[in-house]
Structure formats: structure tokens, C-alpha cells
Design goal:
There is one protein chain. By secondary structure, the chain is mainly alpha-helical. The chain has a domain at 79-111 and 130-296: Transmembrane di-heme cytochromes, Chain C (Fumarate Reductase Cytochrome B subunit), CATH 1.20.950. 65% of the residues lie in helices and 3% in strands. The protein is built from twelve helices and three strands; from the N terminus they run ααααβααααααβααβ. The chain has helices at residues 2-27, 36-39, 53-58, 77-111, 130-159, 161-198, 208-213, 231-256, 264-292, 299-305, 310-316, 318-326, and strands at 124-126, 307-309, 333-335. It has a three-stranded antiparallel sheet with strand order 2-1-3. The termini are far apart.
């Protein structure tokens, strides 16, 4: 019995001894397979090296979205545009906008508003028709809206963001952008009508040189005769309205309608030209707004009601007044019953 038990135990011990090496080998991790690079044919050198950024920006690639420049990943012009817009245009443009404000405040403090030398007569002369006034106010109001929203878009990050915070500035900028985009076409329409209505009276005349020579009497207080518009107003018409506003209108259309298939470089150039022209236009318009409101007594009334006092017409636009009296101008004298506005 004992002999049989010893044989069985010996057989089990031999079986366990034979199984242990096999089980141990089964628990060992499989040997790593040979690398694919060793199994396949060697690839071209640097086949997995990412291309340089310059090559990506200069070489169009593949894009599933069809359209102009949709296959260009990086456009170097964007970096240059950003540096110009956030650098010289913003910095020097801000200084340029402050200069006329400082000059006009100092001028008003030193000279005060320009008044007539003689007492007002109470007799009115028609100066602007209703059509001329509607065209003027439509262009003027849209110009102011575009100017204010443009200032928010261009300078708001530096001036308003620290005050109103990111959420408030984001809302204000979105509102400004939408107003700017939709008021722009209205401004262009009013601009064309305005130029058509006012161009004849803004043609240069020989006596305009004398007005320039005496600077319109603004500093000396001397009476300098002029036509319906003096040489200063004519300069603003040609430089500001016909020149700068036309540039603003064309570049604004390029920016407002990107679906015209213009490229990014054209949009960036239009944006810079648009901003510089707008800054110059706002700076020049400050002088017109000043003289048309607090700077000259009676000027605002002329565009609000269409009429001016006879004394005002003789002292500020003598040649035009004489043509009205002689019937050479379409405007008429309104008679003597009307009373001038308070302060005129």
C-alpha cells in the first residue's frame, strides 16, 4: 500500500516538474514584433518631417471647401496688417484726432463764437432748400454714427475695455460693427446725392484767393466777401467730401461685401486705407462741426431752418447775397416779418 502511494506521489511530482517550465513560458510577455521599418522597404529620408511654416503659407494645399484662398493655411500679410493696425495707425491716429479738439477748444476760449458786426435785421434770406438740408443731415448723421462706431472698433480695446470689462466691450463692439456695416451703404447713397447738389456752388472763383490770404478774417475779425460757400468750406468739400469720403466709401464696400471674391490681401489693404482715411476725415470734420454749431452764431440755424438773417448773409457771404438780391441765385428773400432765433 505504501509502495503504491509512493509511486503515485512520484508520478505527480514528475508531472508538476514537467508542467512548471511550460506554464512559466506561457506567462512571459510575447516577444516584440520586429519594427515595421525593418520589415518594409526603407522610406525616403525625412518622410515624416513636418513642413516649415513658410512653405505652408507660400504653397497652396488641398481644401475640401471651395473658394478663393481657402486652400491657403497661413497668410503672412495678416501679421503685417495687424502690426500696422495696432501700431502706427492706432497710435498716431489717436494723436491726430486729439489735435483738432485741442486747437478748437483753445480757439473758442480765446475768440469765442463768431458774431455779426451789425445788429440783425429780422429779414430772412433762403439759404438751403429742403432737399439740400435732407441730403446734408442724412450724410452728416450717418457720418457721425460711422465715426463713433469706427472709433469703438479701432480704439475701444485700449480705451473702453479697461472700463467696461470684456463682456461689456464685446457687446458694444458687436453693436458697433453691425451699425457700421448697415449705416455704411446709407452714407454712400447720401454722399452721392450731396455731391450732386452742392458741387456747382463749390467751384473755385477768383475771389477765393483773397479769402485764403486773410484766412477768412477768423483771426482778425475782418469782413472778407465770399460766395455761397467761402474758400474754407470749398476746401473741405473737395478734400473731405469728394476726396476722403469717396475713398472711405470704396474701401468700405470692399470690407462690407467679402462675397465679391476679393482676396485677403485686398481686404487688409482696404482696411488700412479705410482706417487712415476715416481718421483724417473725422479730424477735418471737427472744424466744420465747430463752425456749424457753437463756433459761428447763425450757422446752425441756416441748416436747421433753411434761412439766415439778411445781416448774416451780407457779412459772411456777401457775393452770394448780392446774387440772391439780383435774382441770379435760385434762393429768395423771405420778407421782413420773421424773427431770428434767440441768440442769433
Amino acid at each position: 500500500m505504501n509502495t503504491r502511494f509512493a509511486r503515485v506521489a512520484a508520478a505527480l511530482a514528475l508531472a508538476v516538474a514537467a508542467w512548471l517550465p511550460a506554464g512559466a513560458s506561457a506567462q512571459q510577455p510575447a516577444a516584440p514584433a520586429a519594427p515595421a521599418a525593418q520589415q518594409a522597404a526603407p522610406a525616403a529620408p525625412d518622410w515624416n518631417k513636418p513642413p516649415a511654416w513658410g512653405a505652408i503659407s507660400e504653397k497652396p494645399g488641398y481644401a475640401s471647401v471651395r473658394g478663393r484662398e481657402t486652400n491657403v493655411l497661413i497668410q503672412d500679410g495678416g501679421h503685417e496688417w495687424r502690426k500696422l493696425r495696432n501700431g502706427p495707425v492706432t497710435f498716431y491716429g489717436g494723436i491726430l484726432l486729439l489735435i483738432p479738439l485741442v486747437v478748437l477748444v483753445l480757439f473758442y476760449m480765446a475768440k469765442g463764437p463768431i458774431k455779426t458786426h451789425d445788429p440783425l435785421s429780422g429779414k430772412l434770406v433762403e439759404r438751403f432748400s429742403s432737399v439740400e438740408r435732407v441730403a446734408h443731415w442724412t450724410m452728416a448723421i450717418s457720418f457721425v454714427v460711422l465715426g463713433l462706431t469706427g472709433i469703438v472698433i479701432l480704439f475701444g480695446k485700449h480705451l473702453l475695455l479697461p472700463i467696461v470689462g470684456h463682456a461689456g466691450f464685446a457687446s458694444l463692439t458687436v453693436l458697433s460693427k453691425n451699425l457700421h456695416n448697415f449705416v455704411g451703404p446709407l452714407f454712400i447713397f447720401a454722399l452721392v446725392i450731396f455731391i450732386t447738389l452742392y458741387i456747382r456752388e463749390n467751384l473755385w472763383k477768383p475771389y477765393d484767393g483773397a479769402w485764403f490770404g486773410k484766412f477768412g478774417g477768423l483771426l482778425s475779425g475782418e469782413h472778407v466777401p465770399s460766395g455761397k460757400f467761402n474758400a474754407g468750406e470749398k476746401s473741405l468739400f473737395w478734400l473731405l467730401v469728394v476726396g476722403l469720403c469717396s475713398v472711405i466709401a470704396v474701401t468700405g464696400l470692399i470690407l462690407d461685401f467679402p462675397n465679391w471674391n476679393q482676396g485677403r490681401e485686398a481686404m487688409q489693404a482696404a482696411n488700412l486705407i479705410h482706417g487712415v482715411a476715416a481718421i483724417l476725415a473725422i479730424a477735418m470734420a471737427c472744424f466744420h462741426v465747430y463752425l456749424g454749431t457753437v463756433g459761428m452764431v447763425g450757422a446752425y440755424k441756416a441748416m436747421r431752418t433753411g434761412y439766415v438773417d439778411e445781416t448774416w448773409a451780407k457779412e459772411h457771404h456777401q457775393y452770394w447775397y448780392e446774387e440772391v438780391k439780383s435774382g441770379k441765385q435760385p434762393e429768395k428773400a423771405a420778407g421782413g416779418a420773421a424773427q431770428p432765433a434767440t441768440g442769433d
